Amino acid sequence: MSSFANFQIDDGLLEDIRRDMMKFARLQLRDEAQAEDVVQEALVAALDNSRTFAGRSALKTWIFAILKNKIVDLIRLQARTTNISSLSAEEENMDQTFESLFKTNAHWLPDARPNDWGNPEESLREKRFWDVFDACLRHLPENTARVFMMREFLEFDTAEVCRELSLTTSNCHVILHRARNGLRHCLEANWFSTGEQRC
What we know:
- By secondary structure, this protein is mostly helical.
- It has 2 domains: 2-79, Rna Polymerase Sigma Factor, Chain: A (Orthogonal Bundle); 89-198, no CATH class.
- 64% of the residues lie in helices and 3% in strands.
């Protein structure tokens, strides 16, 4: 048993939280050693500051907030030495793939039009959906995934993403568009078109 504030937490639950933290950190950082370090730092910070946990939110939510802050700090540190604005060949190929989905008037080609996703909210409640979503995120090019996750998971606003990664606003929007299209294609191929959402 581990002690948080005025209550005890079962070691099995703590291990479950740690496993989810590692999964989240790996997706954000794309580096096993950095993910281990940042999760360890977050858990130590949570234990050291357990008296500040007032119990107004779930323990896991509180610990994840600490983890997100640690990841944000690390990304900001790395951003000073990383030129994310240069596209990898994989990212350039994504652009060519997406361009082939549209007519010259920017409307969808008939065969490329997005499928009907039914009721996406039902999928969001299913753990298996999030496993597929995580796999799709891992298959995005690294820079594309980093920008998407900073914006959507770590809740940077667009101006912050641009500032931290030395991107222009238009480049950031292009990368976010690329990420959303990549995720849409992956989810349609591996979730919505397979009937998984009804499992």
